[in-house]
């Protein structure tokens, strides 16, 4: 083999290795931009309006419940009630553990059962839910249109509205604010970009286990650590009822029986309790359940093929937990409104 050919093959090998390394890292990097629909671009005026609406308790029939009641920044954008499920109107308990709204901008389905696609479609759902904010839009919209300062803010944020508040613009404003709730840089992000000292050796080992033996990436893949899909992880055995049916309630497909949306693992240490039913307080216990084949090993209809016993040792579980802790970043810098439009 000639000297020139050897050099050429060496260069190709180095370029190929570099390309693979880049591709291997890129999927873990946080996106530089937030996805946004063409008809509802993010602007400062829309974010400001959406934030006010998000924290305004007047968007409920009791004037005591806001979107932030179940999705508060100080609670990891969830609620952390003593009960495992969301508490709404007159103390009513909902069916689900409040899902975190962090990084919902990157999700292609909303709610645990994925019954809507967009944040705009999601925004008004809790308002009309009897056990949540308990107010019909036909009552809420006139209520908001009596607040002149809100009408002005809508006109500024959405000039085409001409200051008339409608369900469409209400949903768009709240969705815009929710879209800006994205994870901050975590120790893992620094590590994946080359800072070897950003996380501990146990966390590094945990990341390797996460990708290989434990196969956590079957469900929690990419920078948001979610495949955006739905799985039945074996939390319940036997015939499922009501909310336990998950996505099956959206459409009666066998493959959707008992499946729930895969949540992000970003800031996961802030958003306990875990799972759609809020049945687990500890991140370690949640990891043990998923890595050992689910809470129930038998009698689970349509359990995900990814939920099998990975034969992890206690030490390996601990390392995976240490890795997931490295996904927690600083709190989003956000000034919570104390005064609202009158």
Write up what this structure looks like.
With 342 residues, this protein is an all-alpha fold. It folds into two domains: 44-179, Cytochrome c-like domain (Cytochrome Bc1 Complex, Chain D, domain 2); 187-325, Cytochrome Bc1 Complex, Chain D, domain 2. The chain has helices at 3-26, 44-55, 67-70, 119-123, 125-128, 137-145, 148-157, 167-179, 187-192, 201-211, 283-291, 314-325; strands spanning 230-231, 260-261. Strands 1-2 form a two-stranded antiparallel ribbon. The radius of gyration is 23 Å and the shape is globular. The relative contact order is 0.15. Mean pLDDT is 90; it is low at 8-23.
How large is the share of residues in beta strands?
Answer: under 5%
Classified in CATH, the superfamily of the largest domain is: Cytochrome c-like domain
- Compute the average pLDDT: 90
Q: How many angstroms does the end-to-end distance come to?
A: 82 Å
Output the CATH class name of the largest domain. Answer: Mainly Alpha
How many β-strands, per DSSP?
A: 2
SSE sequence, one letter per element: HHHHHHHHHHEEHH
- What name does the CATH topology of the largest domain carry? Cytochrome Bc1 Complex, Chain D, domain 2
Largest sheet: 2 strands, antiparallel
* Backbone CA Rg: 23 Å
Number of domains: 2
CATH architecture of the largest domain: Orthogonal Bundle
């Amino acid at each position: 083999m000639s000297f020139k050919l050897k050099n050429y093959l060496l260069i190709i090998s180095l370029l190929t290795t570099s390309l693979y390394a880049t591709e291997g890292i890129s999927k873990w990097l946080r996106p530089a931009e937030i996805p946004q629909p063409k008809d509802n671009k993010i602007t400062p005026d829309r974010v400001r309006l959406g934030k006010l609406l998000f924290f305004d308790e007047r968007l409920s029939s009791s004037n005591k419940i806001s979107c932030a009641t179940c999705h508060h920044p100080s609670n990891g954008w969830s609620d952390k009630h003593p009960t495992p499920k969301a508490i709404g109107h007159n103390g009513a308990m909902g069916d689900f553990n409040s899902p975190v709204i962090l990084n919902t901008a990157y999700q292609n389905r909303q709610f645990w059962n994925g019954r809507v696609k967009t944040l705009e479609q999601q925004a008004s759902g809790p308002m009309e839910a009897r056990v949540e904010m308990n107010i019909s839009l036909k009552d809420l919209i006139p209520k908001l249109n009596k607040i002149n300062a809100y009408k002005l803010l809508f006109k500024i944020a959405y000039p085409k509205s001409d200051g008339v508040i409608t369900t469409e613009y209400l949903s768009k404003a709240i969705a815009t604010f929710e879209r800006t709730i994205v994870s901050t840089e975590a120790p893992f992000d620094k590590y994946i970009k080359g800072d070897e000292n950003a996380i501990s050796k146990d966390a590094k080992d945990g990341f390797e286990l996460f990708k290989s033996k434990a196969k956590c990436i079957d469900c929690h893949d990419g920078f948001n650590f979610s495949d955006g899909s739905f799985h039945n992880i074996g939390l319940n055995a036997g015939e499922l009822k009501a909310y336990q049916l998950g996505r099956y309630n959206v459409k009666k497909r066998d493959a959707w029986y008992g499946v729930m949306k895969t949540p992000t693992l970003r800031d996961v240490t802030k958003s306990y309790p875990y799972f759609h039913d809020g049945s687990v307080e500890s991140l370690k216990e949640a990891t043990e359940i998923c890595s050992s084949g689910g809470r129930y090993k038998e009698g689970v209809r349509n359990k995900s093929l990814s939920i099998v016993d990975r034969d992890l040792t206690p030490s390996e579980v601990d390392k995976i937990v240490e890795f997931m802790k490295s996904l927690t970043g600083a709190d989003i810098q956000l000034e919570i409104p104390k005064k609202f439009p009158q």
